[in-house]
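Quick one - first record:
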Amino acid sequence: MRNRRRREPDPFDGILLVDKPTGWTSHDVVAKIRNHFKFSKVGHGGTLDPLATGLLVLLIGKGTKLSDRIMGGDKTYEGTMHLGVTTSSQDADGEVLEEKDASHITREQVEAAIENYLGDIEQIPPMVSAIKKDGVALYKLARKGKEIEREPRKIHVFSYEVTGFDNPFVHFRVQSTKGTYVRTLAHDLGNDLGVGASLHALRRTASGKLNIENAHSMENILACDRETIGKKMVLLGDMAQ
């Protein structure tokens, strides 16, 4: 019986690190790259909300088999929360539900409150999320004005620090396990401080060992053709080394 030859990776088996611009959904980026380069198979290794920017890992060809590995990695984010503003989506894209004066809140108070979010914690996912209930995404129910009870999820926050304070804006950096809703961290922290808060800006800087420093802008990627895009990809053969 002859041994079957293993298929050699073609130029489009691997991952492409994208610096996602704000306003784009992760699906928008996937569709644009797939259509532009006529790739047969493109996925991503972890969703970024439209508001967020930063590292979006595209899985191309046989690279889609790395989905669990990429999505399972710890994530690092840099962001800004807006104290005193509570929204329907827990970020700046949502409808403002309540506004409170936060001028009395100090950096020291924020840093003290953050301590409660280090280590193993439970987090209730927001209604505006892709989590499904009976096969229907929660955000679709939210659009209909519905709110249902959500089960808390266990996450681990490795680090959570204030990097700048300009009341009512708090700049921070957080590293946590997969499945963490950073906008919920901001929302819950605001509630602890008694003034509410929402996520104003967010940027993912790392996913596992992959870093934003090695990512490419959409403009630079779309300036390539099928002959040159491979130079910007991390090929499966290189990842195995």
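second record:
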Amino acid sequence: MKLWEGRFSKEVDKKTNDFNSSISFDCRMAADDITGSLAHVAMLTAQGIVSAADGAAITDGLTGILEDLQTGKLTIDPNAEDIHTFVEQTLTARIGDAGKRLHTGRSRNDQVALDVRLYLRHEVADLRAQLAELVGVLADKAEQYADTIMPGYTHMQRAQPITFGHHLLAYAEMLLRDIDRLDDVAKRLNVSPLGSGALAGTTYPLDREAVAKTLGMSGVSQNSLDGVSDRDFCVELAAALSLVMVHLSRFSEEIILWCSWEFRFIELDDAFSTGSSIMPQKKNPDIAELVRGKSGRVFGDLMTLLTALKGLPLAYNKDMQEDKEAIFDACDTVKMCLTAFTPMIDTMTVKPENMRKAAAGGFINATDCADYLVSKGLPFRDAYKATGSLVAECIRRGETLETLPLADYRAVCDLFDEDVYDAISLETCVSQRRVLGAPCPDNVRAQAKRVKTLV
């Protein structure tokens, strides 16, 4: 039976019914639908809109349905139109006509808007916890490898020396911003639309604030049209999750590079790698590749939501049924990626000797060589040119700045002295970068501790 069948004289075509149905995906909101209904009926009873006896019967009936769903004693009927229909019809079947009073002063429009908010509130909390766990792992690793020198890159060319701990904390900072964005989403979605009705509120004396308080929500929507048609919070969450996936995808790209024989900076644990069906030597970073690939899926969910909403007049339109699959998929995908990604990072083996060897090549201490001349009084542009000449000479002769004889230094600029070799050592290059946010080991350790206090 449809909740709206009184207006119609014939059954809906089965294929049309299947097309219209949302039970296959909104069934996951069953607990939230019941939670919202319990708060609604408590308010209806308190306001004298339904009798105390009916209110008690409805409350007991809803509680029993929730318990039976949780234990598996009751299963959701896949032929129901949506989760709201299933719950209400099950309730009426169990307690009789009192169940028909549950929907008093309410529409499926404001009901589903509430259900989605309640469901996503849990999802945001779970996602936040997963991100915090990953940030904690990165902070621990950063402390462990605060002194591990590696080359920093620009344009995928070796640029300047940093430490592995410093590199990991860059991703921790990105993820901290992701957590902040989720916290912002949580604030805006934690508002109750219940009482907006189909679009114009209701003539019943509802206490909307009481329902919101019962549900632990911060307030109520202020416009009934907006209350039923607002899905900004879904878009905002999808956008925040898209940025999470951007960050995980960038990190995955580096993990994939670092695992390669060309880098060999890290090795992933066997539990987070796969092999080849034909090449027995292969150890593939499939988890990182999948995370990188699944980023596009979450971006697509965001685009689905934006496209579904962009042309909708007020208030509710059936197009809005498309919000749930998109935002549910975005949440599911990010949670699944984090479930695999965090232990992959936690268990990886770092190879400091390979990082140090890579840092020794590529003249990544050239800037420090120029800075050495600046400390002797030479203008930076002149120091830059002199150092460039030295690099060119090293390349021509197969030398490095560390191995080039002092006479060759002095042939370019007479300000060079024996202390240049200490100034351009990688350890000095890193340890002297003490400005806030720079990679000296003390900074890295301090920032790792700071990061841990923020999650």
